[in-house]
Amino acid sequence: MEKQARQDSAAARSKRRHDRNSQSQTLKSGESLDALFDGAVNLFQSRRGYRFSLDALLLAYFATLKRNDRVIDLGTGNGVIPLVLARLHPEVAIDAVEYQSGMVERAARNFKLNQLDGRISLGCGDVRAAGAIGSAESFDVVVCNPPYRRAASGKMSSNDEKQIARHEIHGELGDFLTAAAFLLRAKGRMALVYLASRAVDLLSSMRLARLEPKRLRMVHSFTDSEASLILVEGVKQGRSGVKILPPLIVYREGKEYSEEVAAMIAGKTLNAQSSRSEYLPQRR
User: Fold this and answer.
1) Are 165 and 51 in contact (CB under 8 A)?
2) pLDDT greater at residue 155 or residue 60
3) Could you tell me the residue range of the domain that residue 266 belongs to?
4) Alpha carbon distance 207, 234 (integer Å)
5) Phi and psi torsions of 232, nearest 5°
6) Residue 162 to residue 117: CA distance in whole angstroms
7) What is the DSSP letter of 47?
8) Is residue 3 part of a domain?
9) Confidence class of residue 190 from pLDDT cuts 50, 70 and 90?
10) Does residue 47 surpass a pLDDT of 80?
C-alpha cells in the first residue's frame, strides 16, 4: 500500500510537470500565467495590458445562477468571469463576448487551457450592435463588468487594452444595459459591478433600460472605509423594490483578506445571503 501511494504521488508529480510544460509552450512573450482557486483555474494575461482584478471575482460570486441557465458575459476581457462561473456552476451554459480582438484570442486560449472551450462559447462583438451578439430574449442571465469611467475622465492609460477596458471609449454604460435588455428573456437577470461613486448613474440607467434593481451590495476595503464598488442585480421588467444586502468587506486589519473574500479566492462555495436571489419564485 505504501509503495502504491508513492507510485501514485510520483505519477501526480509527473502529470503536474507535464501540465506546466504544456502551459509554458503556449505562453507568449509579454504574458504571465496566473492562477485562481489554488491553481484549479489558470489564465494567461498581458503583463502590460489589461489584467483582471478582484471585482471580477466578486461579480461572479454575486450573480444568481440556476440550473440550466444560459449566461452571457458582456466584455469578457481575458475570460476570467466565465472561467469562474464554469467552475462554480458546472450545469450552466456560458457565452462570452469581447470587443478587443487581441483579448478574444487570449480568452480563447484560457478556455482551452482550462479544458472549457467546449463549454464556453466565445465571440468578438460590440455591445452597440447587440443583434450581432445573439438573438433577442435568448439568455437567462447577463453578467457585466463594464468600463467604469467616462471617456474623458480620470487618468488615461497609454495602453490600448487598459484604455478600452477602463473608459467608455467603445461603449457607454447605457450601451451595455441596452444590449442586456435585448438579450435577456422576460424576468431574466443582469448582474453588474461598478464604481460606488457612480451608483446613482447605474441605478437610474438600469431602471431606464427596464432592468429593475432587485439586489444591491456595497463593497468596502475595510469596515470603517467608504464603499469603493457596488454590486447590483436587476430583473428585466421586474417590479420595484430592492433588497440591500450586508456590506462586503475585503480586508481585515493588517490587510489580510476577510474570511468571505479569502473563501472566494480559494474557490469555495459560499452559503451566504449574497449567493441566493430571494425575489425569485420558489419551485414547488
Assistant:
1) no
2) 60
3) 29-272
4) 9
5) -135, 140
6) 25
7) S
8) no
9) very high
10) yes
Write the Ramachandran bin of 161: left for phi over 0, alpha for psi from -120 to 50, otherwise beta: alpha
Question: What are the start-end ranges of the E strands in 39-195?
Answer: 41-46, 70-74, 93-98, 120-124, 139-144, 184-195
Check residue 251 and report its DSSP letter: B
Q: Residue 164 is which amino acid?
A: I
Helices 54-62 + 80-88 axis angle, to 10 = 40
> Distance (Å, rounded) from C-alpha 177 to C-alpha 211?
8
Can you tell me the mean pLDDT for 75-82? 95
200-213, pLDDT tens digit by residue?
Answer: 999 999 999 999 99
How is residue 179 annotated by DSSP? H
Residue 151: phi, psi to the nearest 5? -55, -35
Question: Tell me, what's the pLDDT at 49?
Answer: 74
As given in the structure block, the three cell numbers for residue 276 are 441566493
Residue with cell 432592468: 211
Stretch 19-46: mean pLDDT = 80
Q: What is the pLDDT of residue 33?
A: 94
- How many folded domains does the chain comprise? 1
Q: If you average pLDDT over every residue of the chain, what do you get?
A: 84
**For residue 247, what is the domain's CATH number?**
3.40.50.150
Measure the CA angle with vertex 208, ends 206 and 210; round to 5°.
70
* 160-187 per-position pLDDT tens digit: 544 444 545 556 999 999 999 999 999 9
Q: Quick one: how far is CA 270 from the chain centroid?
A: 16
Q: For strands 120-124 and 93-98, give the pairing.
A: parallel
Helices 2-26, 101-113: crossing angle, 10 deg rounding = 170
Phi-psi region of 236 (alpha: psi -120 to 50; beta: other; left: phi over 0): beta
Give pTM, 2 decimals: 0.82
Is residue 19 assigned to a domain?
no
Alpha-carbon gap, residue 256 to 254, rounded angstroms: 6
Identify any residues that bridge with 120 across adjacent strands, giving them in sequence order.
Answer: 94
Q: Name the one residue in this structure whose C-alpha cell is 460606488.
A: 196
